[in-house]
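Researcher: We're teaching a course module on how sequence relates to structure. For the next exercise, students receive a sequence and then see the predicted structure as tokens, so they can try to spot secondary structure elements on their own. Here is the exercise chain.
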Amino acid sequence: MSRADNHWVAIHADPAFQALHAEKTRFLWGLMAFSISYYFLLPLGAAWFTDIYRKQIWGPLNVGLVFALSQFVVAWGVAWLYARRAAKFDAMAAAIAHKAAHL
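Model: And here is the predicted structure for the students to work with:
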């Protein structure tokens, strides 16, 4: 096993790396589940809940259009949330990389 391989084995065995990986995985799966669920509410709702989606809110705006436009707001919200959390992940990864550089 080469020296580089030993570093990767040591990094992978590091409890800080394990914590980073577990936290990031949990966060990303949750974010993905929310995003996919919210996305598919639009076509599913339009197919099966047409009465709700046709309900007029104001002028030509109905619930379906507002919900469709909310997809943009949610996408930006997901991106903002990920960017905030990624800063924490980056700090954790930098600490792990710094520690690994001094092995």
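Model: If you want an answer key for the exercise: Residues 12 and 54 are 53 Å apart (CA to CA). The mean pLDDT is 88.
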